[in-house]
């Protein structure tokens, strides 16, 4: 598939024709051969070497799938072809979601789409290798690459979901930043110099809090956008992102406290009703956030 120019991703499984050919040659998943040992004339069945239970879920990107001893070439081909096709479909779905998003800025969309297109080509190339594989060693190499080189489910998807959360919050914060001028205008109408000074300090604190949220959230988005499969596991990065989000929410609640004090004081300063309304309706956006 060529790089898109504003068109939506196809909704159907783009890997279907190639996958169908793979499945035609496949068989049911085989069961690992039993491993036995003799101990004093008694045969004892031993557990297989420690490895993830087979078959793994098709979307598992935490464990590299190791084909068990005794599995047929057809069964391994079928499983791996399906696992690759599932990932390709996930990329198609993700691309559609990103294109349709009203939250993501255009540059972020462009960055994410570039990654998706690259991964799509890479995974589709692996699907071709599966179709042409003649032994388990070749399939194992593809299985290794499918997980280690892409990490669709353990890196890409969780990072994109976190980015969307941050961008949604940033939209609301920037709307709130848009009322700062209205606040200053309303405060400028206050006759009492002492009250005006107090309200000015609150307004300044309100603005500083919003700026700190924007800076923290933008940094988190940048870090998430820069994640690559080689960064797996991303637990620490995701933990930091969650901590940033929690902190930003708390900061916004504190900013709401500043705004509430300002509005209460403005209402008590006998200002024109229009001056108060100019910021009161926007406070509700913060409360709904």
Q: How does this model look, in words?
A:
With 289 residues, the protein is mainly alpha-helical. It contains nine helices and two strands, in the order αββαααααααα. It has helices spanning 16-24, 73-100, 106-132, 136-148, 152-177, 180-188, 193-225, 235-268, 273-288, and strands at residues 35-39, 42-46. The protein has a two-stranded antiparallel ribbon. Helix 3 runs antiparallel to helix 4 (136-148). Mean pLDDT is 82; it is low at 1-7 and 26-49.
State the separation between the terminal residues, measured CA to CA. Answer: 40 Å
Instruction: Assign a percent range to the helix content.
Output: 55-70%
The residue-averaged pLDDT reads: 82
**How many beta-strand runs?**
2
Task: Give the ordered list of helices and strands.
Answer: HEEHHHHHHHH
- Based on CA atoms alone, the radius of gyration comes out at 28 Å
User: Strand percentage, roughly?
Assistant: under 5%
Give the strand order of the largest sheet, numbering strands 1, 2, ... along the chain: 1-2
Largest β sheet strand count, sense and barrel closure: 2 strands, antiparallel
* Class by SSE composition: mainly alpha
Q: Spans of 5+ residues with little confidence (pLDDT < 50)?
A: 1-7, 26-49
Put simply, the count of helices is 9
- Shape annotation: elongated
